């Protein structure tokens, strides 16, 4: 994966995303759509993984059959909205190891502050897929990836549902080595840091909070 941003334009992804954006979509509907779309995005974000072969026996004969090479990959959810993407991706990659990064924004400095960090061991030997549905200002994504690199990760991909041009630019400047996979690149951020047209607050919509 060499391009910095992969925009997944598959009709199923785009159709489901439109349903998610609609303000009258219920919490249950939103969650179900997110689960479905996450699986389709997982398919894209794992494209080009290194492969090897394993000798197996079909009912007819032996063969060298393709399997994914290397250590189990690590999925890292950026709390809390990342958990919505995580569930669907895990359904497609059930043997993945899972980590969590929790960050909040300090009200005075406006800088992201870490409140939780737990990731799989041997991060340096794994493909790490960081998941967060909304790449908005990019501040928390950049900070989360800083932490993952500090913990040893060298091969990181970032998976989101919606990205703003500002967020993509911020990520590209801070982490040009981290490819982004997204279902949409929206118009801009508004003055409150929301993506427009967007889908609102992803965490609130998936968990039914306000
Ligand atoms: N986080 C969200 O949940 N929504 C946005 O539009 C921006 C950040």
Main attributes of the structure:
alpha/beta, 6 helices, three-stranded parallel sheet, 210 residues, binds uracil, globular, Rossmann fold
What does this structure look like?
- It is a single chain.
- The N and C termini lie far apart (37 Å).
- Helix content is 33%, strand content 29%.
- The protein has a single domain (5-47, 74-207), classed as Rossmann fold (3-Layer(aba) Sandwich).
- The radius of gyration is 18 Å and the shape is globular.
- The chain is α/β, with parallel strands linked by helices.
- It has helices at residues 11-21, 27-45, 82-92, 139-150, 165-174, 202-207, and strands at 5-7, 51-57, 62-68, 74-78, 97-105, 112-118, 127-131, 134-135, 155-159, 162-163, 180-182, 184-185, 188-189, 195-196.
- Keywords: Allosteric enzyme, Glycosyltransferase, GTP-binding, Magnesium, Nucleotide-binding, Transferase.
SSE topology sketch:
Layout: E1 5-7, H1 11-21, H2 27-45, E2 51-57, E3 62-68, E4 74-78, H3 82-92, E5 97-105, E6 112-118, E7 127-131, E8 134-135, H4 139-150, E9 155-159, E10 162-163, H5 165-174, E11 180-182, E12 184-185, E13 188-189, E14 195-196, H6 202-207
Parallel strand pairs: 1-11, 4-5, 4-7, 7-9, 8-10, 9-11, 10-12
Antiparallel strand pairs: 2-3, 5-6, 13-14
Helix pairs in contact: 1-2, 2-3
The structure holds uracil.
Pfam families: UPRTase (PF14681)
Binding site for 5-phospho-alpha-D-ribose 1-diphosphate: 80, 105, 132-140, 201
GO biological process, one term: UMP salvage
């Amino acid at each position: 994966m060499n391009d910095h941003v992969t925009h997944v334009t598959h009709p199923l992804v785009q159709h489901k995303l439109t349903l998610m954006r609609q303000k009258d979509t219920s919490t249950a509907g939103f969650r179900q759509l997110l689960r479905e779309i996450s699986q389709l995005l997982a398919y894209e974000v794992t494209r080009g993984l290194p492969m090897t072969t394993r000798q197996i026996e079909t009912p007819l004969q032996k063969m060298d059959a393709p399997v994914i090479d290397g250590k189990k990959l690590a999925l890292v959810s950026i709390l809390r909205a990342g958990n919505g993407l995580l569930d669907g991706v895990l359904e497609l990659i059930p043997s993945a190891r899972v980590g969590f990064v929790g960050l909040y924004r300090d009200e005075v400095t406006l800088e992201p502050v870490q409140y939780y960090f737990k990731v799989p061991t041997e991060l340096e030997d794994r493909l790490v897929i960081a998941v967060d549905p909304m790449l908005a200002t990019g501040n928390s994504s950049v900070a989360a990836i800083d932490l993952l690199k500090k913990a040893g990760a060298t091969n990181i991909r970032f998976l989101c549902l919606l990205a703003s041009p500002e967020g993509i630019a911020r990520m590209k400047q801070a982490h040009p080595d981290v490819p982004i996979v997204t279902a949409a690149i929206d118009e801009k951020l508004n003055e409150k840091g929301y993506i427009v047209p967007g889908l609102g607050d992803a965490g609130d919509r998936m968990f039914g909070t306000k």
